[in-house]
# Entry
Amino acid sequence: MNVDVIVAGGGPGGAAAAAQLAQAGVAVLVLDKAHFPRQKACGGCLSPKVLSLGLDFGGVVEDVIEEAVFAAPGEAAIRYRSHTPLAYMVRRERFDQFLLSRAEEMGAHVRYGHRVLQAREISGGVEVVSDRGTFRAPVLIGGDGALGATVRSFRRPPSRIALAMDARLVAADGAHAAWRGKVLIDFGGVPFGYAWIFPTACDLSTGVLGAKKKVRRLPGYLDRFLDRQGVQRGSTKVTGWPIPYPAWSLRPAISPRVLLVGDAAGFVDPLTGEGIYYALRSGLIAAQAIAEGGSGVADRYQQLIWDAFQQDLRGAAILAALIHRAPEVSFRALRRHPRAIEAFAAVLVGRLSYAAFLRKVVRGVFAAGWHSLVQVGRWRDEDRVVGTQRSGLRTEGEH
Ligand SMILES: Cc1cc2nc3c(=O)[nH]c(=O)nc-3n(C[C@H](O)[C@H](O)[C@H](O)COP(=O)(O)OP(=O)(O)OC[C@H]3O[C@@H](n4cnc5c(N)ncnc54)[C@H](O)[C@@H]3O)c2cc1C
# Structure
């Protein structure tokens, strides 16, 4: 089969690239080792930033989140309500199938059950060897993840890795209803990470995320978190997967013929672990750089990515380093300054950049005086706080 572009991996990054290329009249072949719908360890929480990408994914949304509860062990939780959606909940098996089917509808060729084993540059293009055949094309997009065959084939140094685990819990009817429209993010219980409860239509996604070097036994953190929340895990299967963090020294284009997208390029928010938006956006940008053609595809891709979000993810990395190193102080600072929560929510939904948020924080610290931070460090639960409640969330009857 003669194609212009091969895409290794049909997750959000690969599927977005394939759809865009096919729409532009480029012949594209997607190879994915899985048969869809396939399971994927993921919280399934989509930021409203995804809306800006022009994807009509309303048909696979299971819940719309308008309330976020931030918690930390032994602290009063912070509850934030918004009049506009803070997030959209999807199940990855449905969402990813929707994306890849859409690419097929637009004319992309998709080969399911084709595991890419190796890829290499050859004269005038790239050769991709799968367990079901060998394919050649002028360009390869690697969308097969941080530890995928593309990254390994080109000996790209690995990104820093966090570990995340995800368990789907079927909550009792009443308990599930209490979680509708609401997410819980718990800082401080997992080193350099957090734990979550997100609702879908009929169950709860719960999980933990932490820096690989810092966490010893991730399931233990999940069990302790669920105990604190009074949620039973029982014998529910837990799935885990690495999450890459951006490595600033690494370019997302290995060469003008090999572009990496999504997790393969390390495009994940280092504070939140959000990767779906960045996978989709980088896939679209890779397709744009390729469709524009010319000799500078790699430089063009790099530049567009930098302008779109890579620069801002550096701000996320700075904030992540602060919050994850001192979760209690950060948590109390947020609680003490409700406008900081507003601003943080604006970052999460994409209305404010991380850089702008950090500038606000620095200005706030200077305006309030350095001692205010020290005060925050000494903050006591007895202090009166607007919009917070004791932690240990009830899962019933609360809204
Ligand atoms: C537990 C957990 C929870 C998460 N929760 C969230 C969340 O709530 N919100 C969010 O935005 N992000 C979340 N993420 C991150 C998010 O899942 C990823 O960033 C996102 O899936 C990246 O998309 P991708 O297309 O780059 O890769 P993937 O979604 O991993 O897709 C890669 C595709 O490549 C295929 N593949 C792999 N190897 C090969 C091979 N050798 N040959 C052929 N095909 C191959 C796979 O079958 C897969 O279809 C979470 C991650 C984890 C681990």
